[in-house]
Write a structure and sequence with these properties.
The complex is a heterodimer. By secondary structure, chain A is mainly α. Chain A has helices at 3-18, 21-47, 58-85, 89-93, 99-129, 139-165, 170-183, 195-201, 205-219, 224-255, 257-260. Chain A is globular, with a radius of gyration of 21 Å. Chain B has helices at 41-48, 69-76, 94-104, 110-120, 136-148, 166-183, 194-200, 218-224, 230-239; strands at 3-12, 15-25, 30-34, 56-61, 64-65, 79-82, 154-158, 186-190, 203-208, 211-216. Chain B is of the alpha/beta class.
């Protein structure tokens, strides 16, 4: 055993952490998010332990819905990251592809990628736990649509960051959704959040989607106001995200990152 | 298709990467862009390809300003590019990669086009192999096939034979030479390989510090600087 050699290997990684603020932030980020998310879940179950008593599968259904959102966003990001990792990125941007064509192609491919991942999980729910998300009825389609649009919106925003700042923005791709989990009220109602956080959360379509999902699963009531709110917010955010993508492309051309992407 | 650069500049904040480039490449000619690392060759090629936005000046391809989005897309349909720093997706087979890019460039009779390229560039024995599993010489030939998939009228070649063994390098050079003659292709070649430049280029532009500091035919430059070959001439010019 040689201490110097082991020390050398350790400081190689310490230098990396010391020289990269995003890496330090990343180390702090995950435990903080976990604590916040599970803190609110624990608070909810402590205060309303009988809320889900007669409703089997509410948490499981919400988990599936949240995973659908997660998969759609990550799928979009992954399609873009794959091009960076394979160093094929520049080839795409010297092909006669319009920005709108890139966004539409990735959006459609991301849907396919998401479905490949989520359909087996949905099918397994029933034999394993006796719960079927399909029981939510036709409004489930609207919830999935809303989640998909929001997932793609996040994907477009993260991809804009990748375009503008290069692969160093990659960590954001992985962490963006986890930030929204506590605020999106996936596993508990909006009322469990402190008042000031409720105000922020109401700007997220997720709150309306998951409130609606619980309304259907627990009370068997479809509240179209929630669905409309979610869709309207989604349209606004998606339009902003597309604008940001165009702006990032312009910025990347100005900065020259399209040539050196992946290096 | 001709390429014309008019008083082209590119600044990265305070650093001036390209300064007042002004030249025209006539249709069907092969022009060499030479210079030390960091002299602005890749930035110049990047600007012609629309990957980098010039700080000022104009790039006209067949008289059309490529900074206008509609023109950029139109020009890219007739242009292609090869660089050792850009690769094709490694997990796709050679044929799959060519199909993807053929569709992207809307190539007509794609199957025939791919078969021809596979024959001409001798890719047949590994067309079903994943691109990532190929040797660098084989990958280079596949990249060349991709760059010819749309039968480009303009080819931008950034060190097309870098890191290749002499035999493969010679093969690629011969292919490019014949292809350009046969199709009247306009080529801008950035290279550190002086033999390659002497063999392929009708004219050479020497870049240093973002500017063109000398230009002419290889023969004229060698005579002008009193050297025996282009490599010695290059060294003299960039060290002055």
């Amino acid at each position: 055993m040689n201490l110097n050699r082991m020390y050398a290997l350790s400081i190689r990684h310490l230098y990396l952490i010391k020289g990269s603020f995003p890496r330090i932030l990343d180390l702090i980020y995950w435990p903080t998010i976990q604590i916040i998310l599970w803190g609110f879940i624990s608070k909810f179950f402590t205060m309303y332990s009988d809320y889900y008593t007669n409703t089997v599968g509410v948490i499981l259904s919400c988990a599936i819905l949240y995973d659908f959102l997660f998969r759609s966003s990550i799928s979009f990001n992954m399609l873009f990251l794959e091009e960076i990792w394979s160093r094929n990125f520049t080839n795409l941007f010297v092909a006669p592809l319009k920005i709108s064509e890139i966004i539409i192609a990735l959006t459609c491919t991301a849907l396919l990628r998401t479905l490949i991942g989520i359909v087996p999980a949905v099918l397994l729910m029933s034999p394993l736990f006796g719960v079927s998300i399909v029981d939510m009825g036709p409004s489930l389609i609207l919830l999935f649509l809303s989640l998909y649009v929001f997932g793609i919106t996040l994907g477009v925003l993260v991809t804009s960051g990748l375009l503008r700042f290069g692969p160093s923005f990659e960590n954001t791709a992985w962490s963006s959704l986890f930030l929204l989990a506590p605020l999106g009220c996936v596993y508990y109602p909006l009322s469990i959040l402190p008042d000031w956080l409720q105000i922020i959360s109401k700007f997220l379509p997720l709150v309306y989607i998951f409130e609606e999902a619980r309304s259907i699963l627990v009370n068997n009531i479809v509240n179209y106001e929630n669905i409309i709110n979610a869709l309207l917010l989604n349209i606004i955010y998606f339009s902003i995200a597309v604008g940001v993508f165009y702006y990032s492309f312009y910025g990347a051309r100005k900065k020259g990152t399209l040539v050196n992407m992946g290096e | 298709m001709s390429i014309e650069l008019k008083n082209l500049n590119k600044n990265y904040e305070k650093f001036k990467a390209v300064k007042n480039l002004d030249f025209k490449i006539e249709t069907g000619s092969i022009i060499g862009l030479l210079g030390p690392n960091g002299c602005g060759k890749t930035t110049t090629i990047g600007m012609i390809l629309g990957l980098i936005k010039p700080t000022s000046g104009e790039i006209l391809v067949r008289g059309k300003n490529v900074e206008i989005e509609k023109n950029r897309i139109e020009v890219l349909e007739k242009m292609n590019f090869i660089s050792p720093y850009v690769e094709l997706p490694k997990k796709l087979t050679v044929r799959e990669n060519l199909i993807v890019y053929g569709k992207m460039y809307e190539v007509k009779n794609l199957k025939n086009k791919i078969n021809n390229l596979i024959d001409e560039l001798h890719l047949g024995e590994f067309e079903k192999k994943k691109t990532g599993e190929l040797s660098s010489g084989q990958k280079n030939r596949v990249s060349l096939a991709k760059s010819l998939i749309n039968s480009p009228e303009i080819l931008l070649l950034d060190e097309p034979t870098a890191s290749l063994d002499p035999d493969t390098g010679d093969y690629i050079r011969s292919y490019i030479e014949n292809y350009a003659k046969k199709n009247n292709t306009t080529i801008l070649l950035a290279s550190h390989n002086m033999n390659e430049v002497e063999r392929l280029c009708s004219k050479v532009m020497m870049m240093k510090g973002g500017k063109i500091i000398d230009e002419g035919t290889c023969k004229d430059l060698i005579i002008k600087h009193g050297r025996l070959n282009l490599e010695e001439t290059f060294l003299k010019i960039i060290r002055e």
